[in-house]
Every structure is written in C-alpha cells, then in structure tokens.
Amino acid sequence: MSREGLTQVLSVAARDLIEEFWLIELGRDHIRESQNLILEYHLRTLDALHFAVLLSLKELDPILMSADQRLLSAAQHKGLQILNPEGKH
C-alpha cells in the first residue's frame, strides 16, 4: 500500500472511531475494579481494564464481544450478555 493510501485508510478509520465509538475516560475506580477482576477471574491486565469499564456501563445493558473464554465466563458470572465471534460458548 502506498503512503497516500495508508493515510487515506487511517483518516477514514479515525473518522469512524469519532463518529461510531464512545471514548470513555479511564478512572481510578476502573483501575481498582480491574485489580479485583484480575484476582477473582485471573484475567489479563488489558482484559480486566476493558471488563471494568464495561461493568461501569452495566445499566446500558452492554454486550461483551470476545473470543477469550475466561473473559466470557467472567462476564456471564457478572450478569452481562456475551457474544463470541467464534461461535463457541
């Protein structure tokens, strides 16, 4: 891919991120919750942070999409809906 093509792809991706995704500020509560999730479910650090943020949005009835079985199990245990793109439960 040419440099110009890459610039165009990145520009479209950035626009889509701004228009279609929420940016949520990571707070101390998220970090503390992620530490608890690591200890309770043996999650990897970034998975635990992702999960902690999702739990803070639980009133919006979010769906966790992941192929990581440990993360999916933890989400089910916490009462979240899950979606495995690989089709496995």
Task: Give me the secondary-structure topology.
Blueprint: H1 3-20, H2 28-41, H3 45-56, E1 63-65, H4 69-77, E2 81-83
Parallel strand pairs: 1-2
What does the model show?
By secondary structure, the chain is mainly alpha-helical. 60% of the residues lie in helices and 7% in strands. It has helices spanning 3-20, 28-41, 45-56, 69-77; strands spanning 63-65, 81-83. Strand 1 (63-65), helix 4 and strand 2 (81-83) form a beta-alpha-beta unit. It is globular, with a radius of gyration of 16 Å. The mean pLDDT is 90.
Shape category? globular
The biggest beta sheet reads: 2 strands, parallel
Mean pLDDT, all residues: 90
Q: How far apart are the first and last residues' alpha carbons, in Å?
A: 38 Å
How do the SSEs run, as a string of H and E? HHHEHE
Share of helix among residues? 55-70%
SS summary, helix count: 4
Q: Main sheet: which strands, in order across?
A: 1-2
Cα gyration radius (Å): 16 Å
Percent strand? 5-15%
Structural class: mainly alpha
By DSSP, the count of extended strands is 2
List unreliable stretches of 5+ residues.
Answer: none
Which short descriptors sum up this protein?
mainly alpha; 89 residues; two-stranded parallel sheet; 60% helix; single chain
